[in-house]
Design goal:
heterotrimer; A mainly alpha; B mainly alpha; C alpha/beta; A: ABC transporter involved in vitamin B12 uptake, BtuC; 11 helices; about 70% helix; B: mainly alpha; two-stranded antiparallel sheet; 2 strands; globular
C-alpha cells in the first residue's frame, strides 16, 4: 500500500506535471485546430524558449520574470517568422487540400531537424541550465516543493486561463475560433485568414516558449531537449482529440497521473509505455480521441 | 496496353537495378575500406527507404514507427546469436519473420485510420516497442548496448558489401514485382480512394495488412544485417530520428517509384557522410531538402528522371 | 428514386452497398442475404455503385482504373480483362483517354469512368447516386443513352437523383423517399399524379 504521505506527494507531482503539459499541448492543439498543421517541430519551439530564457537570465543577468517575458516575445516573433516563410508559401502553392495535413506534417519534420541543428551550430551541444530562478522551497501539506516548481505551475495556469479568456472574449480570439470552425465562413465575414494563421502559429510558439522558459531550472537548455515535451504534447492532444483545445487540461491530467504512478510503481522509464498503451487502445476504438471534436475540415480522417 | 508494358519492361530497364549491377563491380577496383563502408551504409539505408516507400508510395500510409522494425529485426537476430548460439545467417531470417509479424499486427492497428492518425498510430507503436527494448535491460542491456557476433571473422568490408548488395537487389526485385502486379495496382487504388476501391471489390483489410507485413519484413532483414555488421546494437536505432532519415530519402527519391529511394540514398549518404565532421550541417541539409522537396518538387528524383527521359507519366 | 435534400437517399445507398451497416432490417440481393456484408463482398456479388461526389483513383490511368474492379473480382485471364476494358471504353466513348491519368479528366468524363468501373464488375444491378448532377446537358443525353442501352442488355438500375425529368424519362418504377421513409412507389405516370410527392418537395 502507498502511504498517505507518498500518495499526496505523487498527486502533487502529477498536478505540477499536468499544468506544464497543458501549457505545451495547448499550442499544438491550437495550430491543428486553426491551420490543420500537425506540428512535429513543437518541441523545438519549447527549446527556443529555454535558450532565450537562459541567455536573458544568466547572460544578461535580468530578473526571472523578464527572462520568461523575453522568451514569450521571442517565441512569438520566431513563430510568426516561421509561418510567413514556410507555411504561407506552402498554402499558396497547395492546390490539393486533401494532401495538406500530411504534407505540412513532413514539412514540420524538416523544420524540427533544421531548428535543432541551427541551435547546435549557434550554441553548441552543451547543457545550459540554471540552478534556480528563485531560492528556497515551500512547505505544502508536509511536502517541500521548490519555489521554481510552484511558480512554474502558477505561470502555466495563469497563461492557460489568460489564453482561454483571449479566445473567448476578444474579437481577435473569436476570429481565431471562427477560422477553426469554418474557414470559408470566416473569409466571407471578412476575416483576414493570412493574418489569423500567422497569429495562431505565433501564439502557439509563444505558449511552447513560455513552457520551456519557466521550466529551465528543471530541464536545462540543449538542442534535443524538445523531444520529451513533443512526446507529451502529442500524447495529450491525440488522447483527447486533435484540435480540441478545451479538453487539453483533462488529457494532460490523465497522462500525468498515469506517468507519475507508473514511474512510481514500475520504475522510471516504463511510464511512457503505459501512456502509449492507453492512447493506442483509445485510437483503436475512438480514432478521433476521447472527446474528438468536429474541427473544421479534417480532410483525412 | 500500358499495364502490360509496365510488367514487361520496367524490371529490366529499372535505373535502380542498373545501378546495383554497376555497384557489384566496385570492390574489384576499389579496396578503400572507407569508400566500401559508405556504400554499404548507402545500400542499407536505400533498402530501408525502398521498404518505407512501399507503404507510403502505394497505400499512402506513413509508417512513422518504421525504425522500430529495423531495430526489432536486429535485436531478434543478435539475441538469438548471443543467448542461443544461433548462426547470424539463420538469425537474420528469424528477425525478418518476427519483424514482419509485428508489422502484421501494426497493420491491423492502423486499419481504420488514415493520414495523420495512421501515422501517429504507427509512431506510437514504434515508440512503445523502443520503450520495451530500452527498459528491458535484463534481456537487451538497454542503452549500454548489446554486443552481437559479426557475420565474418575478417575486418575486410568486401564480404559485407556483397551481402548487403544481394539483400538490396533481392528487396528491389521483390518490391517491384509486387508493385507491378495486380496487387500493386490494388495497393495504389486503396491509397488513392479507399471507398472507391471497396466499391470495386478490393478488400482493403487484406491488402493493407499485407503491405505492412512485407515492408516491415524487409526492415527486419536489414536490421539483422546491421546487427552483424556493426557488432553492437543500442535502442537508438529505433529512434524517431532514424525514421525521419529514411523517410527523407524516400520522399527525395520520389514516392511510389521504389527505386528512387535507393538512388537518393546512394547520392545523399556518401555526400552527407563526407560532411560528417559537420554533423549538424548534415542534418540541416536533410531538413532543408525535406522542406524544399515538399514545397517545390513533391515528385522527387523519380519524377525528375521521368521528365528528363520522357518515360510515360504513370510508370514506375 | 427521388426525394428532397436530406431525405436519406444516399444513406440508403450506403446501407444497401455495405458502406454502412443497417441498425435493423435486412438487405437481400437475389437469393443472398447481404445486410452487414462489407462493401467489397457486395461488389463481388454483382452490385455496382457510383458515388454522389465522383470517386476514383486519380493517379491511375483510365485503363488502370478499369482494370481494378475486374482484376479484383474476376478470375478470367488478364488479356480477357484488358479486352473488356477496351470494349467498355469504346462503349463509353472514352477510348482516346485510355492512357490519361484520371485526375486530368473533366467532371463528366470522370462520371463516365466511374460508370465504366461499375460495368467492369459485370454487375446484375447498378446503383447510381446522383449521376446527372453537375453534368453538361449534352453529356447528360449520352448518359441517358448509355443507361437505356445497358438496360436493354439486361442490367437493372437503381438511380437516385434530384433530376425529376431524367428519372421520369428513364424509370419503370419510381420511389419517392422523404425523411428516411418510402413515401410512395409506382409507375412514373401514377407517381406524377400523387399529391404527396409535391408536398414532400414543396410542403411546409
Amino acid at each position: 500500500m502507498i502511504s498517505g504521505q507518498t500518495l499526496a506527494s505523487l498527486l502533487v507531482a502529477a498536478i505540477v506535471r499536468a499544468g506544464l503539459y497543458t501549457l505545451s499541448a495547448t499550442g499544438l492543439s491550437l495550430i491543428f485546430g486553426v491551420m490543420n498543421v500537425p506540428n512535429f517541430a513543437h518541441g523545438e519551439l519549447y527549446m527556443i524558449g529555454a535558450y532565450i530564457a537562459v541567455f536573458t537570465f544568466s547572460g544578461l543577468n535580468l530578473p526571472p520574470l523578464v527572462a520568461i517575458l523575453f522568451a514569450a516575445v521571442g517565441g512569438f516573433i520566431i513563430g510568426a517568422a516561421i509561418e510567413k516563410s514556410i507555411f504561407y508559401p506552402l498554402r499558396k502553392r497547395s492546390e490539393r487540400r486533401k494532401l495538406w495535413i500530411m504534407n505540412t506534417f513532413l514539412v514540420t519534420v524538416g523544420l524540427s531537424l533544421l531548428l535543432k541543428n541551427l541551435i547546435q551550430v549557434i550554441a553548441g551541444t552543451k547543457y545550459r541550465g540554471i540552478d534556480h530562478y528563485w531560492q528556497g522551497g515551500l512547505d505544502l501539506a508536509g511536502l517541500s516543493i521548490s519555489v521554481d516548481r510552484v511558480v512554474g505551475v502558477g505561470i502555466a495556469i495563469i497563461v492557460v486561463i489568460a489564453f482561454w479568456l483571449f479566445l473567448q472574449k476578444t474579437t481577435v480570439g473569436k476570429a481565431i475560433r471562427a477560422t477553426a470552425q469554418d474557414e470559408v465562413g470566416a473569409k466571407v465575414v471578412g476575416i483576414n485568414l493570412d493574418n489569423i494563421h500567422t497569429l495562431t502559429f505565433a501564439l502557439s510558439a509563444m505558449l511552447a516558449s513560455i513552457a520551456g522558459a519557466s521550466l529551465l531550472s528543471l530541464n536545462p537548455a540543449y538542442p534535443t531537449m524538445g523531444l520529451m515535451p513533443l512526446f507529451s504534447s502529442w500524447f495529450v492532444v491525440i488522447l483527447v482529440g486533435l484540435g480540441n483545445i478545451a479538453a487539453v487540461p483533462v488529457g494532460a491530467l490523465i497522462i500525468s497521473l498515469i506517468e507519475t504512478f507508473a514511474a512510481y510503481g514500475f520504475g522510471s522509464g516504463w511510464q511512457r509505455l503505459f501512456s502509449l498503451a492507453l492512447i493506442i487502445l483509445i485510437l483503436l476504438f475512438k480514432p478521433r480521441g476521447l472527446f474528438g471534436s468536429d474541427v473544421k475540415g479534417i480532410w483525412e480522417r | 496496353m500500358q499495364y502490360l508494358e509496365k510488367i514487361k519492361e520496367s524490371n529490366y530497364t529499372n535505373p535502380g537495378l542498373a545501378v546495383l549491377i554497376a555497384l557489384a563491380f566496385v570492390p574489384l577496383f576499389i579496396s578503400d575500406q572507407y569508400v566500401l563502408q559508405l556504400l554499404i551504409s548507402a545500400m542499407m539505408f536505400g533498402t530501408l527507404a525502398m521498404a518505407f516507400d512501399f507503404t507510403v508510395g502505394f497505400i499512402n500510409v506513413v509508417n512513422f514507427g518504421f525504425a522500430a522494425f529495423w531495430g526489432i529485426g536486429g535485436y531478434t537476430s543478435a539475441l538469438l546469436a548471443v543467448n542461443l548460439g544461433v548462426s547470424p545467417w539463420l538469425g537474420i531470417f528469424v528477425g525478418m519473420a518476427f519483424s514482419a509479424f509485428l508489422g502484421f499486427l501494426v497493420g491491423f492497428l492502423t486499419l481504420r485510420l488514415h493520414g495523420i492518425f495512421a501515422a501517429v498510430m504507427a509512431w506510437f507503436t514504434g515508440l512503445g516497442l523502443m520503450s520495451i527494448v530500452t527498459n528491458w535491460t535484463g534481456l537487451t542491456r538497454g542503452p549500454l548496448g548489446l554486443m552481437s557476433p559479426m557475420f565474418f571473422a575478417t575486418m575486410d568490408r568486401g564480404p559485407y558489401f556483397y551481402v548487403i548488395l544481394v539483400m538490396a537487389a533481392f528487396s528491389l526485385l521483390a518490391l517491384l514485382a509486387i508493385a507491378n502486379s495486380k496487387i500493386g495496382l490494388f495497393f495504389r487504388a486503396i491509397g488513392q480512394d479507399e471507398d472507391a476501391a471497396k466499391a470495386s471489390g478490393v478488400n482493403p483489410t487484406w491488402y493493407r495488412v499485407l503491405n505492412f507485413t512485407v515492408s516491415t519484413g524487409i526492415a527486419g532483414l536489414i536490421g539483422g544485417f546491421y546487427a552483424h555488421f556493426m557488432g553492437i546494437l543500442t535502442p537508438s536505432v529505433m529512434q524517431t530520428s532514424q525514421t525521419i532519415e529514411i523517410m527523407a530519402l524516400a520522399y527525395v527519391g520520389g514516392r511510389g517509384s521504389i527505386w528512387g529511394s535507393l538512388i537518393a540514398a546512394l547520392i545523399f549518404i556518401p555526400v552527407l557522410t563526407y560532411l560528417q565532421p559537420l554533423m549538424e550541417l548534415r542534418l540541416i541539409i536533410y531538413g532543408l531538402v525535406l522542406i524544399g522537396v515538399m514545397i517545390f518538387y513533391p515528385g522527387g528524383i523519380s519524377a525528375l528522371y521521368r521528365r528528363v527521359f520522357q518515360v510515360s507519366k504513370s510508370e514506375g | 428514386m427521388i426525394g428532397p435534400n436530406g431525405a436519406g437517399k444516399t444513406t440508403f445507398v450506403n446501407v444497401i452497398t455495405g458502406l454502412l451497416s443497417p441498425n435493423s432490417g435486412s438487405v437481400k440481393l437475389g437469393e443472398h442475404e447481404i445486410s452487414g456484408l462489407q462493401s467489397f463482398k457486395i461488389a463481388k456479388l454483382g452490385m455496382g455503385r457510383t458515388f454522389q461526389i465522383t470517386r476514383g483513383f486519380e493517379q491511375l490511368t483510365v485503363t488502370e482504373n478499369l482494370l481494378v474492379p475486374a482484376l479484383a473480382t474476376k478470375t478470367t485471364s488478364r488479356s480477357e480483362v484488358e479486352k473488356k476494358a477496351e470494349e467498355i471504353m469504346d462503349f463509353l466513348l472514352i477510348k482516346h483517354l485510355a492512357k490519361e491519368l484520371s485526375v486530368n479528366l473533366s467532371g463528366g468524363q470522370k462520371k463516365l469512368l466511374e460508370l465504366g468501373r461499375v460495368l467492369m464488375l459485370d454487375p446484375s444491378i447498378i446503383v447510381l447516386d446522383e449521376p446527372f448532377a453537375g453534368v453538361h446537358p449534352e453529356l447528360r443525353g449520352d448518359l441517358h443513352d448509355h443507361i437505356k442501352e445497358l438496360y436493354r442488355a439486361g442490367k437493372s438500375f437503381l438511380i437516385i437523383s434530384h433530376d425529376m425529368d431524367s428519372i421520369f424519362k428513364l424509370s419503370e418504377r419510381v420511389i419517392v423517399f422523404d425523411q428516411g421513409k418510402k413515401l410512395i412507389e409506382g409507375p412514373p405516370d401514377e407517381v406524377r399524379e400523387e399529391e404527396a410527392v409535391l408536398e414532400a418537395y414543396l410542403g411546409d
